[in-house]
Amino acid sequence: MSGTVHIAFEELSALLRDILAAHGCRPEVAACIAETCAIAERDGAHSHGVFRIDGYIASLEAGWVDGQAVPVVEDVAPGQVRVDAMNGFTLPATAAARELFVAKARRTGLATLLVRNSHHLSAVWPDVEPFAREGFVALSMINSMAYVVPHGGRDAVYGTNPIAFAAPRSGQNPLVFDFATSALSHGDVQIAAREGKDLPAGSGVDAQGQPTTDPQAVLDGGALLTFGGHKGSALALMIEVMGAALTGGKFSFEVDWSDHPGAATPHTGQFFLLIDPDRGATRPFAERVETLVRQLHATGVERLPGERRYANRRHNSLKGIPIATDQLARLRSLAGR
Ligand SMILES: NC(=O)C1=CN([C@@H]2O[C@H](COP(=O)(O)OP(=O)(O)OC[C@H]3O[C@@H](n4cnc5c(N)ncnc54)[C@H](OP(=O)(O)O)[C@@H]3O)[C@@H](O)[C@H]2O)C=CC1
Ligand SMILES: O=C([O-])C1=[NH+]CCC1
């Protein structure tokens, strides 16, 4: 049986960077994906941590995504930036547009960033949290691949379509949440299948459209449901509109990787909105957010979204990130070490 070791964030990030570089990513691309993947592992978001490295490699090896792509940034309006990721990953595309995007939001009070022709396989809160640390309210949405049946429909049309939100707090880590609009993320279904665990009732259907709690039945031609019935379904709909129709990316149901067996990175689009709260009517905004948080605590709320991740971050930054020894050995061999 494999034991567990603890590894420093920088060491894990460097290891993942070497793996991605060894599989065809240029250095800047490898660096930003490795960092986000290591952040997810450090903060305890295992569905989008090192477990995803095989998906990145599979998409690169299948020729589905271009690890060498150089994104093209377009300055289209006073409050709007577009990026064509050129069939590369989303993270380097947003990194390339970041400076212009932030400058526009500062100048005009708000700005949108529309990324298309891009592949996203990571957790979404690392995309928005840094903006809140710079004082912005940030929102992001991404559509993915058709794994989710719309409420009232028969077949999968939507992706697991996550939404992420971040806002500054006064003297505290930003208020952050992000989640899939499906009952579960596809990553959690894969992990449940690997660990031989059942899914919660009401999260998925099998290939015949019958309710199932068997993760393998969901993976083998079945589908997920949206969370919260028609309400989650409406959010998933909005994310298709914002992530694909608005950005110029593909709808989740248009992602066709049948010619690229093994590919695992959805080729769609990502929407970002930044708002400068200093242009709002409440100043200081972050203090106003604290008034709400105090009321939540007063009514007995002990856990705000994001707090588990911040606690994991504090702990694992001190003690190291736990990782199974056989998984670490495998990562080292993938890096050619
Ligand atoms: N790139 C992509 O296309 C996709 C990415 N994803 C990513 O997968 C990850 C997991 O998604 P998902 O499984 O839906 O999210 P989770 O259900 O794990 O978490 C959802 C959010 O709710 C918070 N939360 C969870 N439980 C509680 C609680 N009891 N009280 C208060 N807050 C709570 C979490 O905070 P905390 O983390 O602090 O617990 C988090 O912000 C996300 O990071 C998402 O971005 C998902 C789908 C597609
Ligand atoms: O877990 C998930 O649902 C996904 N993660 C990246 C694409 C879809």
Keywords:
binds 3,4-dihydro-2H-pyrrolium-5-carboxylate, Malate/L-lactate_DH-like, Mal/L-sulfo/L-lacto_DH-like_sf, alpha+beta, 13 strands, 40% helix, single chain, Mal/L-sulf/L-lact_DH-like_ah, four-stranded mixed sheet, 337 residues, 11 helices, Lactate dehydrogenase, binds NADPH dihydro-nicotinamide-adenine-dinucleotide phosphate, Hypothetical Oxidoreductase Yiak, Chain: A, domain 1, seven-stranded mixed sheet, Ribosomal Protein S8, Chain: A, domain 1, oxidoreductase
Order of helices and strands: EHHHEEHEHEEEEHEEHEHEHHEH
Give the end-to-end Cα distance, rounded to a whole number of Å: 23 Å
**Bound small molecules, deduplicated:** NADPH dihydro-nicotinamide-adenine-dinucleotide phosphate, 3,4-dihydro-2H-pyrrolium-5-carboxylate
Low-confidence stretches: none
Strand order of the largest sheet: 2-3-4-12-5-7-8
CATH superfamily of the largest domain: Malate/L-lactate/L-sulpholactate dehydrogenase, NADPH binding domain
Total of domains: 2
The total count of strands amounts to 13
Mean pLDDT over the residues: 97
Give the overall silhouette: globular
CATH 2nd-level architecture of the largest domain = 2-Layer Sandwich
Output the structural class.
alpha+beta
SSE map:
Layout: E1 4-7, H1 9-22, H2 27-42, H3 53-61, E2 72-77, E3 80-89, H4 90-108, E4 110-119, H5 125-133, E5 137-142, E6 148-149, E7 162-167, E8 175-180, H6 186-195, E9 204-205, E10 211-212, H7 215-219, E11 223-225, H8 230-246, E12 267-275, H9 285-298, H10 307-319, E13 321-324, H11 325-334
Parallel strand pairs: 3-4, 6-11
Antiparallel strand pairs: 1-13, 2-3, 4-12, 5-7, 5-12, 7-8, 9-10, 9-11
Helix pairs in contact: 1-2
Bound molecules: NADPH dihydro-nicotinamide-adenine-dinucleotide phosphate and 3,4-dihydro-2H-pyrrolium-5-carboxylate.
3,4-dihydro-2H-pyrrolium-5-carboxylate is lined by residues 47, 121, 144, 160, 180, 185-187, 266.
Protein name: Lactate dehydrogenase
Organism: Devosia nitrariae
InterPro entries: Mal/L-sulf/L-lact_DH-like_ah, Mal/L-sulf/L-lact_DH-like_NADP, Mal/L-sulfo/L-lacto_DH-like_sf, Malate/L-lactate_DH-like
